[in-house]
Design a protein that fits this description.
This protein is an alpha/beta fold and 334 residues long. It has helices at 7-20, 23-32, 39-51, 65-75, 91-95, 129-141, 176-179, 193-203, 217-229, 234-248, 268-284, 292-303, 311-315, 320-330, and strands spanning 55-58, 80-84, 96-101, 106-111, 118-122, 143-146, 149-152, 158-163, 184-187, 262-264, 308-309.
Length: 334
């Protein structure tokens, strides 16, 4: 049960959040210097960064996924590495390996590109399971083992993995248990006509990135401490539980029409991530407490890769998004 706070306590938290979240607008502004539109994607990247959660990005090529990740890394003065996943990639290409030094007669560590703050795993489903597992272990444990030595990864450590929804030939789809490690799955859509005109005018001629560091990585770690203080009422906790349990037991929640369409519901990670993401959403709006709209706004990205639909649903062209939207429409908002 959430600790009951007085109005004065919540006001004090809000004042602290307003102070510590002051960098958010400057950070978004720097990224928008290079990214035209895609505000939702940029906001989700910030939520993943503040919640210490990794993000799976799905969209066709050319929608500024790499540019957004690189711009965010530059804006917080962090190290960025892009890794193109291919069928011949090996775990050592990712985490590093032991190399024999002929002069000293000893093996020395050669660290791989995983040793950065921001990792863009481009087309993660093009690499075989061993490589995916090596990356996912680093995501979960925040460390890698090379030989007999274990090395901790620097914080913040954020993995942005991309998937192309079109070409599935020759790919190794991520198993559900591995997809569950990603906090958010963000679907990136095409820009509208006005945004694409802006892209045309800004990027028709190649130019260096105009991104200035707004904050340092250490300040992100302090901001995470503030996010943890954001107040979530017991009604918000129960709202989140109702949503997650409705994916597992739809009949109990008056959603018998979905019973034949859900194969597996959301895991307990969904409950934790929904709360964390809702708090981050409130932080981005300089608010010291969670409201139901925070949960509703971020809910689809937390749940869409955690709800598995049945063959009957696929036959009727019902996607996890349809199921999740039906649940949000039905569950009573506190």
């Amino acid at each position: 049960m959430a600790d009951k706070l007085t109005a004065a306590d919540i006001e004090a938290i809000t004042q602290e959040i307003q102070q510590t979240s002051g960098f958010v607008d400057d950070l978004s502004g720097q990224i928008q210097n290079e990214i035209v539109g895609q505000k939702k994607m940029v906001e989700r990247l910030l939520i993943g960064l503040l919640a210490d959660g990794h993000i799976l990005l799905e969209g066709v090529p050319g929608l500024a996924k790499t540019l957004a990740a690189k711009s965010l890394a530059m804006a917080i003065n962090a190290r960025f590495q892009r890794i193109q996943f291919t069928p011949d990639l090996l775990p050592a290409d990712l985490i590093g390996t032991l190399v024999y030094n002929q002069k000293s007669g000893e093996f020395v560590i050669k660290k791989g590109p995983i040793f950065a703050n921001f990792i863009l795993a481009d087309e993660i489903n093009r690499a075989p399971a061993k490589v995916q597992s090596a990356l996912l272990e680093a995501m979960q444990e925040r460390q890698v083992t090379i030989g007999e030595e274990t090395y901790h990864l620097d914080a913040p450590f954020l993995v942005l993995a991309t998937q192309n929804p079109i070409e599935q030939e020759g790919t190794y789809p991520l198993p559900e248990a591995q997809i569950d490690r990603f906090m958010l799955k963000v679907i990136i859509d095409y820009p509208n006509r006005e945004e694409e005109l802006g892209i045309l005018r800004k990027h028709a001629v190649a130019h260096p990135l105009n991104i200035q560091p707004v904050i340092q990585p250490e300040q992100i770690l302090k901001a995470r401490e503030s996010v943890a203080k954001i107040y979530a009422d017991e009604k918000i906790e129960n709202y989140i539980l109702d949503i997650v349990f409705a994916t597992r037991e739809p009949v109990k929640y008056g959603l018998s029409n979905l019973a034949d369409y859900i194969s597996y519901g959301a895991s307990p990670r969904a409950t934790l991530y929904l709360m964390q993401a809702a708090k981050c959403h409130a932080f981005l709006r300089h608010r010291g407490f969670v409201i139901p709209d925070d949960v509703k706004e971020i809910g689809p990205e937390v749940l869409r890769h955690r709800v598995t639909v049945t063959y009957e649903a696929e036959a009727e062209e019902l996607t996890p998004e349809h199921v999740i939207q039906e649940i949000f429409n039905h569950i009573e908002v506190p």
